[in-house]
Design goal:
disordered C terminus; 11-stranded mixed sheet; alpha/beta; disordered N terminus; 10-stranded mixed sheet; 29 strands; about 1600 residues
Length: about 1600
Amino acid sequence: MSGRRKGGGRGNRKSAAGATAKYSDQPVSDDDELPIQSFDVSEKLRSKDFPRFFIRELTGQELTIEYLQKKGFTLPLFIREKGGLHMNMPDPVDFSIADVRSMVGGKRVIDVMNCATQHNSEMTMKEWEDFFTDPHRPDAKLNVLSLEFSHTKLDNYVSAPRVVRQIDWVDNVWPRHFKEDQDEATNAMNKMKYPKVQKYCLMSVAGCYTDFHIDFGGTSVWYHILKGQKVFWLIPPTDANLKAFEEWTLSGKQSDVFFGDVVEKCGRVILDRGNTLLIPSGWIHAVYTPRDSLVFGGNFLHSFSIEKQLRVAEIEEHTKVPHKFRFPFFTEMQWYALDKYVYALLGRSHLQVDDETRLRLFGDDYCQAEYRKQLEEQQHITPQELYGLKETVMFIHSLPVTRKCVPNLITDPVTLIKDIRTIITNHLKDNPSLAVTGRPLLYWTGIKQDKNLNLKMKNKARRDLKDEKPRIGERINCKSCAGCLVKECGKCPKCTSYPRKTCERRRCDSKVLAVNTICCLCGLDGWYAETSMTLITRPLETSNLMECAVCREISHPSCHTDYGLDGQISEVTPNTWFCPRCMKFNPPSEDELAAKLRRQDDIKKEEEEFVVHGRSDQPKSELRSALADQIMEAANKNKPLKTAAYIYRPPPFEDNLDEVYRRLRAAQEDGGGTTEVLIQERAVMLPVFQFLTTQEVARCSKVCRSWHRITLDPTLWSTVNLSKQKLSSTLLSVTVQKQPVKLILDWSNVGKQHLNWLLPRIPQTKELSLAGLDYYPTVASLNTCNTPLLQGLNLSHVSNLTDVSIHKLLSNPGDSRPGLLDKKTRLKNLKKLVLSGTEISDVTLRYITQYLPLISELNISNCWKLTDAGLAQLGAQDSPSVEALTSLNISSCRGITDSGIDHLKRCLNLTRLDTTHTQISTKALESFVTHSKHKLKVYGAVVDRKTSSKKSTKRKMSLKGSAAAVAASGPPLQAAKTAAAVATTETGNGGATGVPKWVYALAIGVPITAAMLYVLFGPDDGDNKDKKKKKKGGTSSGTSTPPVTPASTTPAPSTPAPKKGGGATETPSKQSPNKSDEIKTTETKAEPELPTDPLQRGIALKNRGNKFFRGGRYEQAIKCYSEAIEVCPTDKPTDLATFYQNRAAAYDQLEKLDCVLSDCDVALNLNNKYVKALDRRAKALRKQAQKIENFEIQVEKLRQCVEDITGVCLLEGFQKQEHLILVDQVLRELGRAEAALSSKTRIPILPSNHFISQYLESFAEDPIYKIIDKESEGDVDEKENGVELDLSGFNRAKQNLKEEKYENIIDDCTQEIEQNPDTSVGHLARLLRGTFYALRKQQNLAMDDLTVLIDGGDAVDAAVRVNALIKRASLYIQMCKDPKKDPELSLEDFGRAADIDPNNSDIYNHRGQVYLLLEEMNKSIVDFKRAVELNPNHPIAYAQKLYTDYRCAVMIGDMTKIHTVISDFYEAIEKYPKCVENYSLAAQVLNSQEQFKEADALYKKALEIDPNNANLMVHRGLMALQSRGDIAEGVRLMEKALEMDELCEFAYETLGTIEVQKGNLKRAIELYSKAIPLANTELEMAHLYGLKEAATAQITVSNKFGIDINQRGMPMM
C-alpha cells in the first residue's frame, strides 16, 4: 500500500533518501511523493489517454468467496458502497485526524514523506495532527503512508472486508497463536511475531503523488476512502509490462518518464468518499491525491495469486529492494501455507507445538475428529491453487540453503514437501466447478484466545457440555423499549393481582436473555463471570451471550470454533444470531436470513436533518452559508423545514442618515417638535443605550416600539452582565437568543444544570466570567465538549479551585468520544485568564503552560500558595508563555520574591507586570525594565509601558475639538447629520474600537443639542445681522466661569466659547499659535483666589491639597488639609470628616501611622459610616500589627482591623473584591497570632479513644506493640537487663494501653524513665511518652523525648530509633513552624530511618503520606508500593497507595486508571473486609467522581464495622450537602457524629461553617470555640480562630451600624 514497501519503482531511492532503519510503520501502499518530476501530473489527470480500463465494478453482496473461486482475482474490483462488504469503518462525518491521534497515541512516531524532497522525516502524531488541521499550513506536500495500527484502540473501529479476512494468509495460514500473543502496537521488527501489514491508515494532503510501483511481496491491496479523493493509474502485470517496469526502475529516469506512457494500456479510476477498491497481486499502479484524504487499507497474501506473488518477489530480488521494504517473513509464510494445505487436504500438520498451542490452533480431539470426517469426502481445489502450490515448491527449491528460512515449528520440511507432491498428484484432475463451494479451504479449527478466560477451563467446560441437548434460553423484558415504557393501566387482572404482575399493555418488543443464562461451552454468564459472583454490574443490554436462531445454542461468540465464516448477528431480536457452525453446515435461505437480520417493513427512513459539520477553527460564516444552502435545497423539494440547532447573532443594522435628515426636516417644516423625532431615531439613541447596563437596556426595550427595535441591535448585547442576578429559565432563554460575545455570571445563583443547558447554546461566546462561584457544583461544568471556544475566562474567587480542579478543566473533556471533531480541551484558545483569590499553587502555572499556548493576559493575584517556582514555569525555555505572555498580575502573592523576576525576564513580550504587596523590590523591577526590549517604566510596584505626554495631550485636544468643529460648521441640521455619520463611522459595529465612550457622547450629543436649540429658539436667516458681538477674549452671553465645587480636583481653566451661529472662536492677539505653548501657559497660571465663605474656602484648600498629594508633596498637602480643618464650620461634619480623612491619607504616605489612626478616629466620630476612613484605619492598624512582636497587642490591633474592614464590606454590600480579599488576609494573620498566643496557655487534652487507636494502628512495626503481642503469646522473659518488667511503670503503661486507659500513660512512663533512664525499658517508656505528648498537642515535649532517643546512638535499640525518627518526621510537618525547612527536616529523618532499617514498612507508609501532602505524587506512589511489598498484610498502606494512584490519575486525566483504582478498592475491601480505611478512602474517591449512592453505601458499611467513627458520619453529612443540597440532613448527620464522639473537631468546624452560611453567627461562634481546643496543630488552631473572628466581627459591626447581614446576602469570609 505504500511506495516505501513495494516490489520495484522507487524502493532504492527511498532507502537512500533517509528511510528509518527499522521496519516500524512501513505501509502497504498509497501516495508516495516523488522528487520534482519533469512531467506535469495535472496534465495526466486531464489526458484522455487513460480511460477506465480493466476495472470491474461489483456490489458488496456480489464480492464473496464463491465469486473468487469461480472468477479468480485478476482484475481490480471497484465497490461503490460498502454495504454488503461486512467491513467496519468509523463514521466519515465525525471521524477525523484528531481521532486517529487519540487512538494510536499522540506520542507515536510516524514516518512522513515530503513530496518536494523525497526525504523521510519523523513526526509524532500530535505534530502531524497540528500540521494537517492547520488552516494556514505551509505549502508542503506531506504524506503519511506507514501507520500500521493493529493492536491499538483504532484496531477495534476498522476491519477489512469479510472476503479479505476469509482468504488472508496472515489470519488463516500463519500460526494464529503468534498473532494473539502480539502486544506491541508499533512495527518494531524485533518485537513482531507475525507480518503486521493488515491495517494501515493513510493520511495525505492535497497534491501528493505516488509514482508507479508494485506492492511488496506481490500482496493484494484493499482501499476504503473515508474522506477526500484518490486517483489511481492501473497497469496489468503482463510479462511485457513487468519487464518494462523492471527496466524503468533500474534506469533511474523515473522522474522524467511517466510510466503510463511507456506501456500499451494504462487505466485510470477515481475513488471518492465511501468507495472501496481491491487491487490484485502484481498490478503496477500510481496514486494522486486531489483533496486532503483519510484512507484505510491493508495488504494481504492469498491463494488465488500465488504465482504473481512469487514473481514479484523475484523482481524485488533483481531490483535490490532493501529487505526492510519487503513483506516481512515472506519465505516463512510460504512454508506455513504449504503446511496448511497439507492439513486442509490430508488432515495432518507438520507443526511441532505444545498441547495448549495445539488446542488453540486445531481444537481438542473432538474438533479434530469432526474435521477429519469432512475430509472423507473428495475435496477439490481451484487451478490457481494447484499451480500456485507447484510454483511455491519451485520457489523454495531455488533459494540458497541459507535463505530457505524454514520456521522453527516445522522440524521435518522434507516430509512436508513430499506431502505437497502427493496433493498435486491427487488433485491434477480436479473439477474447477466442484471447487466452487462458497467456503474457504484454509482456516483454523481451534478456539480463538480470549484473554479474560482460562483456555483450559473453556475446553473442559466445552467437553463436559457438548453432549447436552441445546435448550431455548429464557427471555425477559428489556425494560427500555417503547413497549416496556407504556404506562400501566391499573385495571387489568395482572395489575390487580397479588403479587402484582406486568401489565397486559406492556408488551416488550426486544426481549433479552435472562441474567442467569450461561454459555453452553464455557459455563459462564454473559459477562464472563460465574453466576454466583457478586459485586458485578450486569446491565441486560451488555450481555455477550448469543442464541442461534437455527440450533438454539447459547454461547459466547469467542467460544466457537473458527469455521472460516463469521456469525450473522440479528438487528431485530437482541442476543440472537446465526452461529458460524450453522452458517457453514446448515445455512439459512436468503429470505430467512434477511427477515431475521432486519425487518425492512418496520424500519422507516428518518427525515433528513439540517446538519453542518465543520472544524472547530472554521469561520462561522462558512458554516452559516452551508446551513443556508441545505435549507434552500430542502425548500426547493417542498420538505418541511427545521430550525437551526443554534441561534446565530444577526449582523448589525446599518443607519440611513439621509432618512434621518429627511424626517428631521419634515418635522421642522410641520412645526412639530424635533425632540420626539430624535429620541426615536436609532442613530441617536443607539450610542446612548451603549452606556447602559444589561438590565437598563432590557427596561428601555419596554418603553415603546421604537426603543424596542433599537434595543434589538446586537451591538447592545455583545456583553450580557447577569452578575448577582437570580437566574431563571426565562432569563437564560433570552441570553441564548442574544448570543453574547461576553457573558458575565459573577456571584449569581447559576448552577451546574444551568451551565449544562447554556454552554451548548452559546457557541459564539468568547469571554465568560464566573467569579465568586463554587467549582464543584458549577464551574466544573466547563470540562465538556459543549463549552464554546473561549478566549477569556474569569474564575477569580471561585471556591475549591485547586490545582486538581485546573487540571480537570484544561484536560480533555470527560464526554470526549471517538468521532468528535475536536476532543481537546475547549479552553485551548484562552488568551486571558483570571484566577485571583483562588487556592492554586505553582502546579497550576505548569498546567497553564502545557494546555494554554495562546495565553497573553494572566491574573493570579492574591494566590497565597504561589512561589518563585511557579514563575519559573512561565519563563521556561520551552514554555509558550515566553512569546505569548504580555500582561501578568501577581499582586498580593506574598511567596514571590526577587528571584521570580529573574524567571520573568525570559518572557520577551511581557509589558505589564503588577507586583503590588509582594516581596519584590524596586531594584528587581528596574532590572526587569533594563533587560526588556520594550520601552517600560516602573510606576510604584507596577511595570508598564511609557506614555508619551505630548501624544496623549494632542490626541485629547483633537478629540475634544472634533465634536465642537462638527457642531460649529454649516447649518445645525447639517451638523447633526455629519455628527451622526461621524459617530456611526467611529462606533462601527457596536463601538468595538478603542475610542472612549465620552467621544461618542460628544460626537452625538453636542451637534444634536445645537440642532435642537437652533430649531426651537434660533432666529431666521435674516436675523444673523442683528447678533450681538462678543468682546475680544471674552465669553458669549449667558456663560460664566463655574464655581469651585467639592468634587473638583483641579482648577478648571476657562476656555473661549464658540460664537453663536457657528463663527470662529476669538483668541487674544498675543496668544501663541502653537497648541503646546497654549497648554503650558494654561498650566503655569497662578492659583485662583480663595473664596471668603468658610466652607467654600475649606473646600478650595482641600482641592489644593489634593493637587499637592497627587504630585507627591505630602507635607504641603497636610498643611492645606490642616488649614481646611481650621476654617471649616463645625456644623458641617461630613465635610470636616473628609478633610481629616484626606490628611490621614497624606500621613499614611509618610508612614506616620499614629497620626493616621488619630485623624481616622476623628473622621469616624464625625461620620461613623465613612467607608474611606474605615478602610484607611483598617490598613493602618494592620501595618502597626505587622511591626509588633507582642502577640497580645498584635491580636488587639488585628481584631480592630477586622471589625473596620468588615464594616467596609457591609456598607458596600460586599461588592468590592479587594476588600473581601483584604479581610481574608487579615483573618489569617489574626488567626495565627491568636493561635500562637493561646498555645502558650493551652490545656493539654487527649483526643478520643477512637482517634488514638486509629493513630497507633497506623504503625505496623511499632516496637511497643510487638512486645505486647509477644507477651500475649507468652514468649517474653520476665526480666530484661536485670529489671523486672512486671514491677515497672512501663508495665502499667502497657496494661493501660491494652485496656485503652490512656489518661495515666504519661505519668507511668515518667516514673519508669526516672527509675531506669538508660535501659531498654526506659527507652520504650520514653518513646511511648513522646507519642502521647504528641497526641496531647504538646509537640515541644514530644520533640524533646524523641530527640533524646534519636541522639542515643547504638545504645538505643534500632527499632526504637526508627520509630522515633518516623514520629519526629511527622511532627515537623504537623508543627509547620517553617514551611520551607520543615519538609526538608522531615524527609531527612525518614532517610535516616531508612538507613537504619530499610525493610521497615512504616517508614515508607508515613513518608508516602508526607509526599502526598507535598503533592509529590510519583514519590508517594513509590513509597506506598514499597510499604505494601514489605508488609502485604498491612491494609492501611495498601489503601493509601490506591488513593495516591487515584490522585495521580486525576491530575493527568487518566480515566482508565481511575476506573482501575476504583476496581482495586473493591478488591481491597473483599481482601480486608475489616479495614475501615479501605471503605473510607474508596468512598471519598467515589464521592469525587459524583457516584454518591455507591459512596454512601461504603460509608454505611464502614460504620457497621466501626460504629464509633465520627469522621465517617461527618463525611456522610458533607456528601448529603454536596449531592442533594440537603442542609437539614447534613446537620443531622454531623450532630449524630458529635453524639458518637464529642471530641470530633472535624464535626464542630463543619457545623460551624454551615451555621455561618445559614446566618446563625452566634451558634457558629460556639461551635468554633469548641473546636479550637481540639485542634492538633497551631496551623489548625489559626484556621479556626480566623473563622471565629470573622463571625464575631460581623455581629459586632452589624449591631454597630444597624445592618441586617442576612438581608445583605453576606458571603462567608
